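Entry 14. Structure prediction run on the chain below.
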Amino acid sequence: MRAFALLLLVAGALPCRALTVSYDVAHPRPENHTYEITMDVGDVQGGSIDLAMPAWTPGYYKIQNHARNIRDFTAKSAAGDLAWEMVDKQTWRIQTGNAGAITLRYRVYAHQLTATGADLTDEHAYFHASWICMYVVGALSTPSTLRLHPLPGWKTATGLDPAPGENTYAAPDYDILVDSPVLMGNLDIREFSAGGALHQVVLHGNPVYDRAAMTKDVEKIVNAQLAAMGAPPYKRYVFLLMFPRWGSGGLEHLNSTAIVANGEELPNRDRYLKFLFVVSHEFFHLWNVKRFRPAQLGPFDYTKEVLTKNLWVHEGFTTTYGWLSMRRGGVLNRQEYLNYVQEDLNNLMRRDGRKRTSAAASSWRTWYDADDGDDVEVSYYTSGHLIGVVLDLEIRRRTGGAKSLDDVMKLAVEKTKGAGYANDDFLPIVNEAAGSDFTEFFAKYVSGTVELPLADVFPPFGVTYEAHVDAVESDPGFDCWGIGEDLVKITRVPETGPAVDAGLDEGDILVSAEGKRLRAGTFWAFVHSKKPGDKITFQLFRGERMLEKTVTLNEKKKISHQLKLVEKPTEDQKKWQDGWLK
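Output returned:
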C-alpha cells in the first residue's frame, strides 16, 4: 500500500505533456484577400480533438462568427489525412487516430479594413488573430508561435514579442494572441519614450497631416495619462494607425491599439482632434478594461455573448478620459474641451431612448440592436461619458478637492489586479476611493433614467450650463428621407405624437399635400412654413394602396445644451476649475 502511494506521488510529480501550437500565416496571392493558415498542434492526447474559431473579438461586443470565412479545411497526421466534421457553427472535431501531432490547413477570406477587422491586399496584411487563428477547445492557456511572411519591402508591427525564427512571434496564451493585432506593409514607424517605456507610432496609408506633429500630440496624450495613472504597465506600446480614404474607429489591446481614420479629413481641425480622441480613448483602455474589468471580460468565452452591465464604465469613462487627457496634455484648451463634452451632451439629449433605457441596461443590450433603436436605445459611450464627468465633479465637491475620479480609476486597477471584479459591482470601488456613499447616485443615473444634475454640478467649477431654445418649429411627428428628388418616405414614427395620432406608418411614401406634389428637397421648408396647430392632409402610398391622412402639427423646440467658462470666475471657482482641468 505504501509502495503504491509512493508510486502515485512520483507520478503526480512528473510533468504532464502539454499541447504545442504554432501558426504559419502566408498570403501568396494578396489580391485574392485570402490568408493561408498552417496550424501545427503537437503532444495531442486521445483519439479526437476540437478546434474552434471565435464568435467575436474582445472589445467589439457584437457576434461576428469568424468561422464564416473559413474554407478548404484539411487535417493530417504523419500517417495521412484525418477525418473531421463540424459539430456546431464554429467548431471542427478531428479524429486524430491517436496521432501525437497533427497539421491543419485552411484559408481565410479577409477584406475588411476596420479597427475590429482583418484585411489583405497588395498594400498590406492586417489582422486580429480572432479572424484567422483557430484555438484548441479547452486549451486557451496554451502558448503559441506565429510565423509571418511579409512581402519584399514590408515592415511588421505588432505588440507581440519576437520569438526564435525568422519573422516569428510568441504569445503566452490564446488571449494574448487575440489581443495583439498584426500590421505588415509600407510602414512609417516613429518612436518616443515616456514613463521609461518605448512607444511606437506606426503610420500606414496617407495621413494628410504633419507626421512629426501628430507623433508629438500622441506623446502629449500618453504623458498626460501616465501622470494620472502612474507607471506604464508595459515595456512597449504600439499605435497601429491606418489611413485609408474612408472609415473610422479603434479597438483597444493590452499593449497596442488598432485605429482606422480617413487621412484626407485630417487637415480639418475638428476631424483631426476627433482622430486624436480615438487615440486617447484607446490608450486609456490599457487600464480601463484591460487592467480592471468585470470578471466575465477575461479570460474570455469566445463562443457566445459575454454580458455585463458596466460598459458605461469601461467605454463611457474611457471616453471621459479620452477628452480629459487631451485637455491635460495641452492638445485642447479649456473651452475646446467643454465644447466636446457639450457635443456628447447634445447627442445624448436628442435620444428619446435615454428616457427608458439606463446606462446599465444599454450596456447589457449591446449585443443586439432594437429595430426601433431611436426610440429605446441610448449609447453607453455618451451616457457613460457624461456620468463620468458629473461623478468626477461630485467626488471633488464632496471631498473638498482631495479626491477625484482619478482615485477611483487607480484604486480599481489596484484592487482587481489579475482578476475582474465580481457581479458587475463597481459601486464599492467608487465608495472606497471617494470615502463617500454613491448608492443614490448610481440608483438615479446609472440604473435609473433620471436626468443628470447638470445645472447643479458645473457652476462651482466656473462653468455655466444652459439649455438654450434655438428655434421653435412645426413638427409632423415623423422622420423621413428622400427617394430621389420626387418622393418622401417616412422612416420613423415615434410611439407618441401627431404622426401616430394621424395613422401614419413607417414606410409610407408621401406623394402630395394641399393639391401639390411633394419633393424631397423642399419638403421640410414646406412643413416649417406652417404654424404649430395647423393641419396638413397628405396623399400617400402604403404598399399598393393610396391613402389620405391628416396631421395636426406639434410645436417642436430645438434645444442646444451649452457649457461655457465663466468670464470672471471667483477665486473658489478658479481653484476648483484648476484642480479639474489642470
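The radius of gyration is 28 Å.
Filed with the rest of this week's runs.
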